[in-house]
Design brief:
The protein is of the alpha/beta class and 315 residues long. The chain folds into 2 domains: 157 residues, HUPs (Rossmann fold, 3-Layer(aba) Sandwich), CATH 3.40.50.620; 124 residues, Beta Barrel (Elongation Factor Tu (Ef-tu), domain 3), CATH 2.40.30. Helix content is 32%, strand content 27%. The chain is built from 10 helices and 16 strands. The strands form 4 sheets. The protein has a 6-stranded parallel beta sheet, with helices on both faces. Strands 11-16-13-14-15-12 form a 6-stranded antiparallel beta sheet. Strands 6-7 form a two-stranded antiparallel ribbon. Strand 6 and strand 7 form a beta hairpin. The two termini are 29 Å apart.
Length: 315
């Protein structure tokens, strides 16, 4: 998949059929929109594309207002790239969300960006799509613009899971409620945390449970606690998928307060520092707690590992 962060794209990338949105989580609702764009791309032998924004508009406006909003993203930009790549998308138009873009009216966005910059042949959006200055444009106004500018448009219906609309907001709620299975049912895949492995304090190694440490900065924190996980190593000599157990939280036993993600990989002995990993949350085992002694902590970690292995072996 080709990735463009500019409005100047090569001729062979123009004329794509694209789905537009933030695609945070790339959930089943997003995938349905992408599938519609895929059909349109195949009809006219055009590339299948995604048009999205970076940073997330919500992040941009929180900084502009100088407000410290809680982290909310389900995935970072690179994780989104990898998920879209797996779905067979040909090109990612990841345009900068900045003040200049905010000032464009919905008509100007349609004319200057969709038509003139990218020469799109077909656009797919959700029925709740809003765009342009002050979110003044809707899916219906885009329909009018598309007719004038000569590109096709499909407005996709919202997709439900049970009696709830599949949305990034509802997925975030499931994660904060310690229900990764519910989140996965809306995502169509395990909720994953992707980042580069960092050096930790080696406490896990001292306890007999060496861990892979990654940050969750900028991401929606799942409920703190211990999870059975599938961990994919994406770079380096140990690439592959492994079973593990992950602790997400602030490590109250050791007086820490910055949330992080520590994973003990079963039957693994290798150096992953500096490599990119993706931790998929499968099942919540227990909440985060403080132990009276290191021995009590080790006993619990043994029990967590056994519980996680039993769960993961059934997948």
């Amino acid at each position: 998949m080709r990735r463009f962060r500019t409005y100047n794209i090569p001729k062979n990338a123009r004329g794509a059929a694209v789905a537009i949105g933030n695609f945070d989580g790339v959930h089943l609702g997003h995938q349905a929109i992408i599938d519609i764009a895929r059909v349109q791309a195949q009809k006219i032998s055009a590339p299948l594309g995604i048009l999205t924004f970076e940073p997330h508009p919500r992040s941009f406006f929180s900084k502009k207002l100088d407000k410290d909003f809680p982290s909310f993203r389900l995935m970072n930009a690179n994780a989104r790239f990898h998920r879209l790549e797996k779905l067979g998308v040909d090109l990612l138009l990841e345009i900068p969300f900045n003040q200049a873009l905010c000032e464009l009216s919905d008509w100007e966005f349609s004319k200057k960006i969709l038509n003139e910059s990218f020469g799109l042949s077909h656009v797919v959006v959700g029925s709740d799509f809003c765009f342009g200055k002050d979110r003044g444009g809707t899916a219906r106004s885009l329909e009018n613009h598309a007719a004038k500018l000569g590109f096709g448009l499909t407005i996709a219906k919202m997709k439900n899971h049970g009696n709830k609309v599949i949305s990034s907001t509802n997925i975030r709620q499931a994660l904060t409620e310690a229900n990764p299975q519910k989140a996965a049912a809306m995502l169509g895949h395990w909720h994953r945390i992707e980042a580069t492995v960092e050096h930790g304090e080696k406490r896990g190694r001292e306890l007999g449970f060496p861990t892979v440490n990654i940050t969750i900065d900028g991401l929606q924190p799942p409920a703190f606690g211990v999870y059975a996980v599938l961990i994919d190593v994406l770079t380096g000599p140990h690439t592959g998928s492994y079973y593990g157990v992950t602790s997400i939280g602030v490590r109250p036993m050791f007086g820490k307060n910055k949330p992080n993600c520590e994973t003990f990989i079963f039957d693994f002995n290798g150096d992953l520092y500096g490599e990119t990993v993706s931790v998929g949350l499968v099942e919540y085992l227990r909440n985060e707690k403080t132990f009276k002694s290191v021995d009590a902590l080790i006993t619990q970690m043994d029990a967590d590992s056994i519980s996680a292995q039993k769960i993961l072996e059934k997948l």
